Amino acid sequence: MAKRKPARKKPKTVDRRKKVARKKPKTVARKKNVARKAPARRRPAPKPPSSRKAAPPKFRPGTITHTELASADPPATRTWCESVLGWKFGEAVPTPTGPYHMWRFDLGTGGGIRANNPPEVPGSIPYCEVADIRTTYVCFHDTGATEMIPPMQLPSGMGWIAVVAAPGGVAIGLWAMK
Fold first, then answer.
1. How many structural domains are present in the chain?
2. pLDDT tens per residue across all 178 residues of the chain
3. Which of 64, 81, 94, 114 is least surrounded by CB atoms within 10 angstroms?
4. Is residue 13 part of a domain?
5. Is the pTM of this model over 0.90?
6. Rounded to an integer, what distance in angstroms lies between the CA atom of residue 163 and that of residue 136?
7. Which domain range does residue 155 map to?
8. Is the distance from CB of 102 to CB of 111 less than 8 angstroms?
């Protein structure tokens, strides 16, 4: 029998590049920020509109919250303001001197149009919100303003007003809840 030649082994190839032992970075277990859905909460049923109370308005000292326009023709002024300026008016409020046409803006300010009282000329009076009408009126007078209309209560719990003439003759109205 003939001897078989042993199978030739492939020579080992040596990788001549240096093997550098690399350190594996340490892994730190971190908590995953997974957004979790909050359990559904039932909202209480809304109350009927008649039982809801309006939140009291936020006090805004010195802010012009009302502007009064004294007009020789209040209905014409109202019509013009509606058509040109887009103001929204409510029903006119009857007063001893004639109807008072009030408007209100979404941001909580507004005003009214009334007939001027001669010798008063047509014009406007800005009303600034104050904390205490009597104290502010006295303070304004003591610092150089001239008395025009002393503090007076408005009907229907609408607060109090007063008017002074600032130095230079400019009328400034004051308004407060008390």
1. 1
2. 556 666 666 555 555 555 555 566 566 556 556 556 666 666 666 655 555 555 556 777 888 889 999 999 999 999 999 988 889 999 999 988 899 999 988 878 899 999 998 888 899 999 999 999 999 999 998 999 999 999 999 988 889 999 999 988 889 999 998 7
3. 94
4. no
5. no
6. 11
7. 56-176
8. yes
